[in-house]
Amino acid sequence: LSPRPSRGDALLGSGVCLMACLLLTAELRYPKPSISLRPSAGVTLGGAVTVWCRGRHQNMRFLLHKFGNPNVLQDVVLAGNVAEFPIRNVSRRDAGSYRCYYRSKSDPPVWSEPSDPVELAIAGEGPPQRPHSQPHPQPREPTQMGSRSRIHPQRSRQEKVSE
Length: 163
Fold this sequence. Notes:
By secondary structure, this protein is an alpha+beta fold. It is built from 1 helix and 9 strands; from the N terminus they run H-E-E-E-E-E-E-E-E-E.
């Protein structure tokens, strides 16, 4: 017969599980990233702007989402913690509210909270009209896109990768 664990052993085991479970639960979401536009002032039609997203963790996948579009606009895989999402030849269609997220590369992924929104305004034009009652949905995975952007830390250029 094997010895039965004492009541103290059972409580210790429960305490360890409780602590581990609390730590795991606390880690289910990463903190929200910060987001900004460069240049920060309104961009002109045909101009260029870059959306910067800074997370708190290294080696993550960053995703850019525009309000009203259920798909991910750009998907960047980095070794660092800052993603740049360039928008070239800006049109009226690009104006609006953007958020970014980051997530682990593991499966299943651990997502961050969404960033606060940043508004891309076209210089000389009012803000785009949008309903105020709809929340920002979590973006769909980039596998639903035809292509995605990747920034390689070793290279300064960005290349388009077809899926």
